[in-house]
Amino acid sequence: MSREELNKELNKAIGQRVQEIRTRCNLSLEDFSVILDVTPDFLGLIERGERSLPIRHLVVLSTLFPVSQEYITTGVGKPPIRFFDTPILFLKQYFRRTS
């Protein structure tokens, strides 16, 4: 497998895990993109594996959500079965007020 093919596969796997985090939190693409400070279009590209996840967004995800950077980047370990509702509800309310 070439380096380019390996990068594409890695981006696709990371994008699927990012999408998993978003959907487990019941967040729309728009709300989640606000949290990451990206456009919904760019987030869609990340989730489809067409763009790589920038390091700063990896840090944001692992800081705001109960999931490790290791899980996001490698798939090692498992995220909680259900994310905590309270922080997610707070984030939803916060971003609705500021948008």
Write up what this structure looks like.
The structure is a single chain. The chain has about 100 residues and is an all-alpha fold. The protein has a single domain, classed as lambda repressor-like DNA-binding domains (434 Repressor (Amino-terminal Domain), Orthogonal Bundle). It has 6 helices and no strands. The longest helix is centred in the N-terminal third of the chain and has 22 residues. The chain starts with a helix and ends with a helix.
Give the key terms.
99 residues; 434 Repressor (Amino-terminal Domain); 6 helices; 69% helix; globular
Q: Could you name the CATH topology?
A: 434 Repressor (Amino-terminal Domain)
Low-confidence stretches: none
Give the tally of structural domains.
Answer: 1
Label the structural class: mainly alpha
- Shape designation: globular
Percent range of helical residues? 55-70%
- The number of helices is 6
Q: What quaternary form is this? A: single chain
CATH class: Mainly Alpha
* Cα gyration radius (Å): 13 Å
- How far apart are the termini? 44 Å
- Overall pLDDT level: 85
The biggest sheet, with number of strands, parallel, antiparallel or mixed sense and barrel status, is: none
User: From the 3D coordinates, which CATH architecture would you assign?
Assistant: Orthogonal Bundle
The CATH homologous superfamily is called lambda repressor-like DNA-binding domains
Please state roughly what percent of the residues sit in beta strands, choosing from under 5%, 5-15%, 15-25%, 25-35%, 35-45% or over 45%.
Answer: under 5%
Q: Report the strand count.
A: 0
- Would you list the SSEs in sequence order as H and E? HHHHHH
